[in-house]
Write a structure and sequence with these properties.
alpha+beta; three-stranded antiparallel β-sheet; 4 domains; 8 strands
Length: 260
Protein backbone atom coordinates (compact mmCIF):
# COMPACT_ATOMS: atom_id res chain seq x y z
CA UNK A 1 0.00 0.00 0.00
CA UNK A 2 1.43 3.40 -0.90
CA UNK A 3 2.55 5.62 1.93
CA UNK A 4 0.15 8.36 0.85
CA UNK A 5 -2.81 6.00 1.15
CA UNK A 6 -1.69 4.94 4.60
CA UNK A 7 -1.44 8.56 5.68
CA UNK A 8 -4.86 9.37 4.30
CA UNK A 9 -6.35 6.34 6.04
CA UNK A 10 -4.70 7.31 9.32
CA UNK A 11 -6.07 10.84 9.03
CA UNK A 12 -9.57 9.51 8.36
CA UNK A 13 -9.40 7.18 11.34
CA UNK A 14 -8.13 10.00 13.54
CA UNK A 15 -10.93 12.31 12.40
CA UNK A 16 -13.51 9.60 13.07
CA UNK A 17 -12.15 9.05 16.55
CA UNK A 18 -12.28 12.78 17.22
CA UNK A 19 -15.81 13.03 15.92
CA UNK A 20 -17.25 10.33 18.19
CA UNK A 21 -18.20 11.45 21.71
CA UNK A 22 -19.77 9.66 24.67
CA UNK A 23 -21.73 11.47 27.39
CA UNK A 24 -23.07 9.90 30.59
CA UNK A 25 -26.76 9.78 31.40
CA UNK A 26 -26.63 12.74 33.81
CA UNK A 27 -24.62 15.06 31.53
CA UNK A 28 -25.32 17.16 28.47
CA UNK A 29 -22.84 18.61 25.95
CA UNK A 30 -23.43 22.10 24.56
CA UNK A 31 -22.07 22.07 20.99
CA UNK A 32 -21.03 25.12 18.97
CA UNK A 33 -20.74 24.99 15.21
CA UNK A 34 -18.33 27.54 13.75
CA UNK A 35 -18.57 29.45 17.01
CA UNK A 36 -22.36 29.63 17.11
CA UNK A 37 -24.81 27.68 19.22
CA UNK A 38 -25.72 24.46 17.46
CA UNK A 39 -27.28 21.86 19.76
CA UNK A 40 -27.30 20.14 23.12
CA UNK A 41 -26.06 16.57 22.74
CA UNK A 42 -26.37 13.52 24.94
CA UNK A 43 -26.71 11.28 26.71
CA UNK A 44 -24.94 8.41 24.93
CA UNK A 45 -23.01 8.53 21.65
CA UNK A 46 -23.07 11.48 19.27
CA UNK A 47 -20.91 12.75 16.43
CA UNK A 48 -19.12 16.03 15.81
CA UNK A 49 -17.83 17.43 12.56
CA UNK A 50 -14.08 17.77 13.04
CA UNK A 51 -12.73 21.33 12.91
CA UNK A 52 -16.30 22.62 12.66
CA UNK A 53 -18.09 21.52 15.83
CA UNK A 54 -16.80 22.27 19.31
CA UNK A 55 -18.02 21.28 22.79
CA UNK A 56 -18.37 24.55 24.66
CA UNK A 57 -19.48 23.09 28.00
CA UNK A 58 -20.56 19.87 29.64
CA UNK A 59 -23.43 20.42 32.07
CA UNK A 60 -24.27 18.18 35.02
CA UNK A 61 -28.06 17.76 35.12
CA UNK A 62 -28.24 16.15 38.56
CA UNK A 63 -29.58 17.90 41.66
CA UNK A 64 -26.85 19.96 43.31
CA UNK A 65 -26.58 21.28 46.87
CA UNK A 66 -25.10 24.52 48.12
CA UNK A 67 -24.69 25.54 51.75
CA UNK A 68 -25.30 29.18 52.60
CA UNK A 69 -24.97 31.09 55.85
CA UNK A 70 -25.70 34.57 57.16
CA UNK A 71 -24.01 35.71 60.37
CA UNK A 72 -25.14 38.69 62.43
CA UNK A 73 -27.98 39.44 60.03
CA UNK A 74 -30.67 41.78 61.41
CA UNK A 75 -34.26 40.64 61.42
CA UNK A 76 -37.18 42.98 60.85
CA UNK A 77 -37.42 43.65 64.60
CA UNK A 78 -33.67 44.44 64.75
CA UNK A 79 -32.34 41.23 66.33
CA UNK A 80 -28.96 39.93 65.15
CA UNK A 81 -29.18 36.25 64.21
CA UNK A 82 -27.10 33.67 62.40
CA UNK A 83 -28.86 31.41 59.90
CA UNK A 84 -27.54 28.31 58.12
CA UNK A 85 -29.42 26.86 55.16
CA UNK A 86 -28.96 24.46 52.28
CA UNK A 87 -30.24 24.96 48.73
CA UNK A 88 -31.18 22.08 46.41
CA UNK A 89 -31.02 23.19 42.77
CA UNK A 90 -30.83 21.61 39.33
CA UNK A 91 -29.99 22.72 35.80
CA UNK A 92 -33.06 22.30 33.59
CA UNK A 93 -31.89 24.18 30.49
CA UNK A 94 -28.31 23.29 29.58
CA UNK A 95 -28.28 25.80 26.72
CA UNK A 96 -29.14 28.74 29.00
CA UNK A 97 -26.76 27.60 31.74
CA UNK A 98 -23.84 27.39 29.28
CA UNK A 99 -24.49 30.55 27.27
CA UNK A 100 -26.50 32.83 29.55
CA UNK A 101 -24.01 33.04 32.41
CA UNK A 102 -20.27 32.46 32.85
CA UNK A 103 -20.40 30.36 36.05
CA UNK A 104 -23.88 29.25 36.98
CA UNK A 105 -22.82 27.41 40.15
CA UNK A 106 -21.11 30.45 41.63
CA UNK A 107 -24.03 32.64 40.58
CA UNK A 108 -26.56 30.39 42.31
CA UNK A 109 -24.55 30.47 45.54
CA UNK A 110 -24.19 34.26 45.45
CA UNK A 111 -27.88 34.77 44.75
CA UNK A 112 -28.83 32.34 47.52
CA UNK A 113 -26.56 34.19 49.97
CA UNK A 114 -28.07 37.61 49.25
CA UNK A 115 -31.61 36.22 49.18
CA UNK A 116 -31.08 34.70 52.61
CA UNK A 117 -30.13 38.08 54.06
CA UNK A 118 -33.10 39.72 52.34
CA UNK A 119 -35.46 37.13 53.80
CA UNK A 120 -34.05 37.60 57.31
CA UNK A 121 -34.37 41.38 57.04
CA UNK A 122 -38.04 41.16 56.06
CA UNK A 123 -39.03 38.60 58.73
CA UNK A 124 -39.49 39.04 62.46
CA UNK A 125 -37.60 36.75 64.81
CA UNK A 126 -40.75 35.15 66.21
CA UNK A 127 -41.95 34.23 62.72
CA UNK A 128 -38.53 32.86 61.77
CA UNK A 129 -38.44 30.62 64.84
CA UNK A 130 -42.08 29.54 64.83
CA UNK A 131 -42.60 28.75 61.14
CA UNK A 132 -39.49 27.38 59.43
CA UNK A 133 -41.50 25.99 56.52
CA UNK A 134 -42.89 29.39 55.60
CA UNK A 135 -39.38 30.86 55.69
CA UNK A 136 -38.10 27.98 53.51
CA UNK A 137 -40.85 28.55 50.94
CA UNK A 138 -40.29 32.29 50.87
CA UNK A 139 -36.54 31.87 50.38
CA UNK A 140 -37.04 29.26 47.65
CA UNK A 141 -39.39 31.57 45.73
CA UNK A 142 -36.95 34.48 45.97
CA UNK A 143 -33.98 32.47 44.73
CA UNK A 144 -35.93 30.75 41.94
CA UNK A 145 -37.13 34.09 40.58
CA UNK A 146 -33.50 35.11 39.99
CA UNK A 147 -32.13 31.82 38.61
CA UNK A 148 -34.90 30.81 36.18
CA UNK A 149 -33.41 32.87 33.34
CA UNK A 150 -30.13 30.94 33.74
CA UNK A 151 -31.87 27.59 33.21
CA UNK A 152 -31.54 26.68 36.90
CA UNK A 153 -34.52 25.48 38.96
CA UNK A 154 -34.50 25.63 42.76
CA UNK A 155 -36.02 22.42 44.10
CA UNK A 156 -36.10 23.28 47.80
CA UNK A 157 -34.45 25.32 50.53
CA UNK A 158 -34.08 24.08 54.10
CA UNK A 159 -33.02 26.24 57.04
CA UNK A 160 -30.87 24.07 59.26
CA UNK A 161 -30.23 26.36 62.23
CA UNK A 162 -31.13 29.78 63.60
CA UNK A 163 -28.62 31.08 66.14
CA UNK A 164 -29.70 33.89 68.45
CA UNK A 165 -27.69 35.72 71.16
CA UNK A 166 -27.30 33.96 74.51
CA UNK A 167 -28.89 36.87 76.40
CA UNK A 168 -31.95 36.69 74.19
CA UNK A 169 -32.14 32.91 74.60
CA UNK A 170 -32.24 33.35 78.40
CA UNK A 171 -34.96 35.99 78.14
CA UNK A 172 -37.05 33.82 75.81
CA UNK A 173 -36.62 30.86 78.16
CA UNK A 174 -37.88 32.88 81.11
CA UNK A 175 -40.81 34.15 79.07
CA UNK A 176 -41.76 30.62 78.02
CA UNK A 177 -41.54 29.42 81.63
CA UNK A 178 -43.75 32.29 82.77
CA UNK A 179 -46.31 31.42 80.10
CA UNK A 180 -46.34 27.77 81.22
CA UNK A 181 -46.84 28.79 84.88
CA UNK A 182 -49.64 31.14 83.85
CA UNK A 183 -51.41 28.40 81.90
CA UNK A 184 -51.00 25.97 84.79
CA UNK A 185 -52.56 28.41 87.25
CA UNK A 186 -55.45 29.17 84.89
CA UNK A 187 -56.10 25.44 84.49
CA UNK A 188 -56.00 24.89 88.26
CA UNK A 189 -58.38 27.79 88.87
CA UNK A 190 -60.79 26.43 86.26
CA UNK A 191 -60.68 22.99 87.90
CA UNK A 192 -61.37 24.47 91.35
CA UNK A 193 -64.31 26.46 89.98
CA UNK A 194 -65.75 23.32 88.39
CA UNK A 195 -65.31 21.36 91.63
CA UNK A 196 -67.04 24.12 93.59
CA UNK A 197 -70.02 24.06 91.20
CA UNK A 198 -70.31 20.29 91.54
CA UNK A 199 -70.12 20.51 95.35
CA UNK A 200 -72.90 23.11 95.36
CA UNK A 201 -75.05 20.88 93.17
CA UNK A 202 -74.43 17.89 95.48
CA UNK A 203 -75.25 19.99 98.55
CA UNK A 204 -78.53 21.08 96.98
CA UNK A 205 -79.45 17.46 96.28
CA UNK A 206 -78.55 16.30 99.81
CA UNK A 207 -80.45 19.17 101.44
CA UNK A 208 -83.59 18.38 99.45
CA UNK A 209 -83.44 14.58 99.94
CA UNK A 210 -82.56 13.17 103.42
CA UNK A 211 -82.39 9.64 102.04
CA UNK A 212 -79.60 10.62 99.65
CA UNK A 213 -77.64 12.18 102.50
CA UNK A 214 -78.01 9.12 104.72
CA UNK A 215 -76.99 6.80 101.85
CA UNK A 216 -73.98 8.96 101.20
CA UNK A 217 -72.95 8.66 104.83
CA UNK A 218 -73.32 4.88 104.69
CA UNK A 219 -71.27 4.77 101.48
CA UNK A 220 -68.48 6.76 103.13
CA UNK A 221 -68.46 4.37 106.08
CA UNK A 222 -68.31 1.42 103.70
CA UNK A 223 -65.40 2.90 101.78
CA UNK A 224 -63.50 3.61 104.99
CA UNK A 225 -64.05 0.03 106.15
CA UNK A 226 -62.97 -1.42 102.79
CA UNK A 227 -59.78 0.62 102.48
CA UNK A 228 -58.56 0.35 106.07
CA UNK A 229 -59.76 -3.20 106.75
CA UNK A 230 -61.30 -2.17 110.09
CA UNK A 231 -64.77 -2.56 111.58
CA UNK A 232 -66.72 0.68 111.97
CA UNK A 233 -69.43 0.78 114.61
CA UNK A 234 -72.42 2.91 113.72
CA UNK A 235 -74.00 4.79 116.63
CA UNK A 236 -77.45 3.55 117.61
CA UNK A 237 -79.16 6.88 116.99
CA UNK A 238 -77.62 7.16 113.52
CA UNK A 239 -78.67 3.62 112.55
CA UNK A 240 -82.20 4.20 113.98
CA UNK A 241 -82.64 7.41 112.02
CA UNK A 242 -81.31 5.77 108.85
CA UNK A 243 -83.71 2.87 109.35
CA UNK A 244 -86.59 5.30 109.70
CA UNK A 245 -85.57 7.06 106.54
CA UNK A 246 -85.29 3.79 104.66
CA UNK A 247 -88.70 2.63 105.92
CA UNK A 248 -90.16 5.90 104.75
CA UNK A 249 -88.57 5.28 101.37
CA UNK A 250 -89.91 1.71 101.29
CA UNK A 251 -86.53 -0.02 101.82
CA UNK A 252 -85.52 -2.66 104.31
CA UNK A 253 -84.62 -1.08 107.66
CA UNK A 254 -81.24 -1.53 109.29
CA UNK A 255 -81.42 -3.08 112.76
CA UNK A 256 -79.21 -1.18 115.22
CA UNK A 257 -76.66 -3.13 117.19
CA UNK A 258 -77.66 -4.12 120.73
CA UNK A 259 -76.63 -1.79 123.51
CA UNK A 260 -73.73 -2.88 125.62
Amino acid sequence: MPIAAIVILAVIVLLLLRSVRLIQEWRRAVVLRLGRMHAVKGPGLFFLIPLVDQIASIIDMRIQTSSIAAEQALTRDMVAVGVDAIVFWQVEDARAAAIGIANYREAVERVAQTSLREMIGSTELSQLLADRQAADAKLRTTIAAKTTSWGVAVRSVEIRDVAIPAILQDAMSRQAQAEREKNARVTLASAEAEIARQVLEAAAIYSSDPVALQLRQMNLLYEMNKERGATVLIPTDMATSLGAVLRAAGASPITPPPAA
